[in-house]
Design a protein that fits this description.
- It is a single chain.
- This protein has 147 residues and is an alpha+beta fold.
- Helices cover 61% and strands 14% of the residues.
- The chain has one domain.
- It starts with a helix and ends with a helix.
Length: 147
Amino acid sequence: MWLIFGCLLFLIDRLTKSAALYYCSVADYHVTSFLSCTYLLNQGTSLNIFMPDNEFYFWLLTGIICIGTFFFSICWLNVKSMITYASLGFYLITVGSLSNIIDRFLYTGVIDWIYAYYGDHHFPVFNCADAYIVLGTLLVFYAYIKE
């Protein structure tokens, strides 16, 4: 079950990033009055945090992300036998991070494409994998607060 779920999430992220690279790198597409498809190559972390200013810091950050992903996958392996908020959270973080790591090696940055805004309020451009990571983090925090 975990494998099928992870492959589905991974495929959704990869396909939407490919579509964004193909369609949104040429022009932005406004979906609604608060949502657009906007291409951005993000060299920082989820939600455009920790943007490196040179190649050394980009690869250092990529190494740290790889180590963190390894850590979260080990945490998931320790709790995967039970379906809990923590196990689902660690799994979402791992799947999202793996997909973003692939982008970092293929494109020297992560393809972000979902741009949400309301009036003068703008949310950082993100992708499905970033949403998995943020949701996973919230689930892990919730699981530990609940315990």
